[in-house]
Amino acid sequence: MEVVAASPDPVRISFLAALLRDAGIDCAVLDAHISAVEGGIGAFPRRLAVSRADAAAARRVLRDAGEAPDG
Fold first, then answer.
1. Ramachandran category for residue 2: left, alpha or beta (phi over 0 → left; psi -120 to 50 → alpha)
2. 10-39 tens-digit pLDDT
3. Burial of 12 from C-beta contacts in 10 A (0-12 / 13-18 / 19+)
4. pLDDT, tens only, 34-65
5. CB atoms within 10 A of CB 33
6. DSSP type of residue 68
7. 16 neighbors 48 (Cβ within 8 angstroms)
8. DSSP string of 7-43, one letter each residue
9. Domain coordinates in residue numbering, the chain
10. What 3-state DSSP class applies to 4?
11. Which residues contact 69 (CB under 8 A, 6 or more apart)?
12. What are the DUF2007 domain coordinates in residue numbering (predicted)?
């Protein structure tokens, strides 16, 4: 797995995941449940990961959508 984006904003991560899934790229949200530990303060970013084989395509999809990858 390779991280292609990171954000403390769960809505943004959800949007980016939807972009990738619409493009046929499977992805996983890492650290999605960290907010239970951190108290919801947004200190820890959620990470969006894809397989290494899909990483270049995923970054291209995000870039083409105007969402520069953070991770």
1. beta
2. 899 999 999 999 999 999 999 888 766 666
3. middle
4. 766 666 666 788 899 999 999 999 999 999 99
5. 9
6. -
7. yes
8. ES-HHHHHHHHHHHHHTT---EEETTTTHHHHTS---
9. 2-64
10. strand
11. 4, 5, 58, 59, 62, 63
12. 3-66
Tokens read off for 45: 């970013």
Residue written as tokens 């530990």? 37
State how far the Cα of 41 lies from the Cα of 24, in Å rounded to an integer: 32
Q: Which two tokens stand for residue 35?
A: 């907010």
- Cα gap 66→69, rounded to integer Å: 9
Copy the structure tokens of residue 5.
């984006």
CATH of region 2-64 = 3.30.70.790
